[in-house]
Amino acid sequence: MKSISFILVVFIFLQSKVLWADDKPIEMLAGLSKPPFVIANEDKGMQIEIIETAFEKSDKFVHFTYLPLGSHLDVFHSRDFDGIITLSEHEKENGICLSKPYIIYQNVAVTLADSALNINSIDGLANLKVAAFQNATRFLGEKYSATFKNSASYIELADQTSQISLLYSGRVDVLVMDINIFKHLLANKRHENSSNKTLNKKYKIHFLFKPRVYTAGFKNKELCQQFDQGINEIVADGSYQKIIDSYLE
User: Fold this and answer.
1) Domain range holding 144?
2) What's the domain count of the chain?
3) Are 46 and 89 members of one domain?
4) Sheet of 174-178: strands edge to edge?
5) Which CATH number is 238's domain given?
6) Which of 57, 70, 131, 238 could form a disulfide with 172 if both were Cys (CB 3.0 to 4.6 A apart)?
7) CA distances (Å), origin 246, targets 49, 50, 242
8) What is the pLDDT along the chain (249 residues), one digit of tens a residue?
9) Same domain, yes or no: 97 and 36
């Protein structure tokens, strides 16, 4: 009888080890907070939820580690990570299987509708008061950088929430930032300051910059394929768009 009990204990232990192995999370590297794409302190964001939902289609769950983007590839290769959530579609790093593009960053110029500004090119920003995201002159090309070289009416801000305040208070004419970051931050400010009717003013989006699409990267080709299939499924069933919309309302 004791031998049977011992065998049962061993069997249960082995089964639990198998289940634990199956439940081991996919370890992925993410960047520091960039709402609404990544909100590290809350372990959420558009990209975080999209990746989680895509892998749920394969009954897998994901654990994210948040580190500065500049260190990702070194950390990825030196430690036991399965994937990286934000890579250029042109990334050609050995040992990484790139997924299909799954998220778009789109920088735009934003004005208030009642200013009646029609901006069709970067040149159209030259004589306006502009507030941009930090290091915009590094990321948006030579023409953009040259336009604002030594300009007294141009500023770049690390705190993008303050960009919203500058536009709606009339202290700048134009914001340059990602369209989803703008919509997310404006929605938050409207919720927090519901009595401030100024924040309800209509805005206009000027598409002056090319969109940038990003992929995820994996060491394991099978994970890469499961991710792509999961993205296809959540786009088809509408849950992808629901995640996007939930951060912009």
Assistant:
1) 107-206
2) 2
3) yes
4) 154-157, 130-133, 174-178, 107-112, 203-206
5) 3.40.190.10
6) 131
7) 11, 12, 6
8) 444 544 444 344 444 434 444 578 999 999 999 999 999 999 999 999 999 999 999 999 999 999 987 778 888 887 889 999 999 888 777 789 999 999 999 999 999 999 999 999 999 999 999 999 999 999 999 999 999 998 999 999 988 999 999 999 999 999 999 999 999 999 999 999 988 999 999 999 999 999 999 999 999 999 999 999 999 999 999 999 999 999 998
9) yes
